[in-house]
């Protein structure tokens, strides 16, 4: 008789389906207009694909240096030397990873020990929680405050959350999922909060730094880390590591996938003080031998080319900001017209809509799913929107602490009162896709108004 294979017992905290698996399946099942996951639905610029082809056909197909392809780390060190206003050593202060997600993962593994706490500004990118817990750490939540259509840092709440166990604060600017860009004053408040806590670091997640819109975001421009546009300097983005005394307290994480519409290339990086990057370099060989050599070579070429004039703009980055600002405004107008008021989008490629006043069928509100057994209003709205109106969006419940967690991330608690109120819409889509979504949202609004009038 053939041997019977016995599956291992499930771990205590076996992973369940996620928001991404559920709504990706819904998108495939329904063929709905997808404003869900954050990846562009167009091809990258020609100069980027040309760089990829050239890298493959010119012999860059074998292993390269584990800590990063020499040409790419040297190029990044030169660019960040200008961004930071200090010399960056390409071989001691830069590490190349398989996307920003791996940069975050290896940072957590190197930085955290069991019992360490990591502060998350809520709502937060859901990936952070799992990576913190896999490294033995504990997430601690500090809610962002809301003022009208804006999000703001609650500096007093942040200071109160820091303890001797605090090992890191994750600062994501521009912020996923809210689209908030933290002002220089807010970043200075974060820096002031950790000065009295020598163990605390800041993990600065900057993957959307070339996507900052508008002209009135406080004082986020200027200074060593802000810049006023131009080819090298991301307009009005503040690099946290440039703040006084923060170079040795900051790990800067970024990538190229969002900027160049090549999310599948998976080229990311981490920069920081050499004492930290040394340990990252030591850990990387246990995760992979290297990020893909041709993609690293191609990205070095693309980064150089992007500083040059592009389609009537001073650089590719300036063109990119213009494109996304227009798409952000178009989607905001469509949502507002459909009765879904939006929080102000300042950067990145997401908008948050308030769906608390949109009528959703009670059947959706009652029906739990494997990914959300205890149904929330935002999740029910997104299922209703997909199945009844043909548009995919993402509920923000996964970006808030779980209901069973208290303020510090442990024990019973009601969670954040904003959980269940907001939905995330993605505007890194073609004009045709956004126009189709606007029409579907308008029809949704018309139908719900008619039903309420009956």
UniProtKB/TrEMBL annotation:
Keywords, comma-separated and alphabetical: Aminotransferase, Pyridoxal phosphate, Transferase
InterPro entries reported for this sequence: Aminotransferase_I/II_large (IPR004839), Kynurenine-oxoglutarate_AT (IPR051326), PyrdxlP-dep_Trfase (IPR015424), PyrdxlP-dep_Trfase_major (IPR015421), PyrdxlP-dep_Trfase_small (IPR015422)
Cofactor(s) named in the record: pyridoxal 5'-phosphate
A GO CC term attached to the entry: cytoplasm
GO molecular function: aspartate-prephenate aminotransferase activity; glutamate-prephenate aminotransferase activity; kynurenine-oxoglutarate transaminase activity; pyridoxal phosphate binding
Aminotransferase class I/classII large domain location: 32-440
Similarity section: Belongs to the class-I pyridoxal-phosphate-dependent aminotransferase family.
Protein name per its UniProtKB record: Aminotransferase
Source organism of this protein record: Tribonema minus
């Amino acid at each position: 008789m053939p041997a019977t294979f016995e599956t291992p017992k499930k771990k205590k905290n076996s992973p369940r389906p996620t928001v991404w698996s559920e709504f990706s399946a819904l998108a495939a099942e329904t063929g709905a207009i997808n404003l869900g996951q954050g990846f562009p639905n167009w091809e990258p610029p020609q100069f980027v694909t040309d760089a990829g082809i050239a890298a493959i056909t010119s012999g860059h197909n074998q292993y390269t240096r584990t800590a990063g392809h020499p040409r790419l780390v040297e190029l990044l060190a030169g660019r960040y030397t200008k961004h930071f206003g200090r010399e960056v050593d390409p071989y001691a202060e830069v590490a190349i990873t398989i996307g920003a997600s791996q940069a975050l993962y290896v940072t957590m593994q190197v930085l955290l020990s069991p019992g360490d706490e990591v502060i998350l500004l809520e709502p937060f990118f859901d990936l952070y929680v799992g990576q913190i817990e896999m490294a033995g750490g504990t997430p601690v939540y500090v809610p962002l405050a809301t003022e009208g259509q804006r999000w703001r840092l609650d500096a007093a709440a942040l200071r109160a959350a820091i303890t001797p166990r605090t090992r890191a604060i994750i600062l994501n600017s521009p912020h996923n999922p809210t689209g908030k860009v933290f002002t220089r004053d807010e970043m200075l408040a974060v820096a002031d909060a950790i000065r009295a806590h020598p163990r605390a670091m800041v993990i600065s997640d900057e993957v959307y730094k070339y996507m900052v819109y508008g002209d009135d975001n406080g004082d986020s421009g200027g200074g060593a880390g802000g810049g006023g546009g131009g080819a090298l300097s991301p307009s009005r983005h503040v690099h946290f590591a440039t703040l006084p005394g923060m170079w040795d307290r900051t790990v800067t994480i970024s990538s190229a996938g969002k900027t160049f519409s090549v999310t599948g290339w998976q080229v990311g990086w981490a920069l920081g003080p050499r004492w930290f990057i040394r340990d990252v370099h030591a850990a990387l060989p246990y995760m992979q031998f290297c990020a893909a050599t041709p993609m690293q070579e191609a990205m070095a070429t693309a980064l150089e080319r992007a500083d040059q004039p592009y389609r009537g703009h001073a650089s590719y980055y300036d063109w990119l900001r213009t494109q996304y600002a227009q798409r952000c405004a178009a989607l905001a107008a469509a949502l507002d017209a459909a009765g879904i008021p939006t929080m102000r989008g300042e950067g990145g490629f997401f908008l948050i809509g308030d769906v608390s006043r949109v009528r959703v069928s009670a059947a959706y509100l009652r029906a739990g799913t494997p990914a959300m057994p205890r149904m929330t209003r935002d999740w029910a709205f997104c299922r209703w929107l997909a199945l009844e109106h043909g548009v995919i969006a993402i509920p923000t419940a996964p970006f808030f602490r779980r209901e069973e967690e208290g303020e510090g991330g442990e024990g019973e608690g009601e969670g954040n009162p904003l959980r269940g109120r907001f939905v995330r819409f993605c505007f890194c889509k073609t004009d045709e896709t956004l126009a189709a979504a606007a029409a579907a949202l308008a029809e949704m609004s018309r139908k719900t108004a008619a039903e309420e009038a009956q």
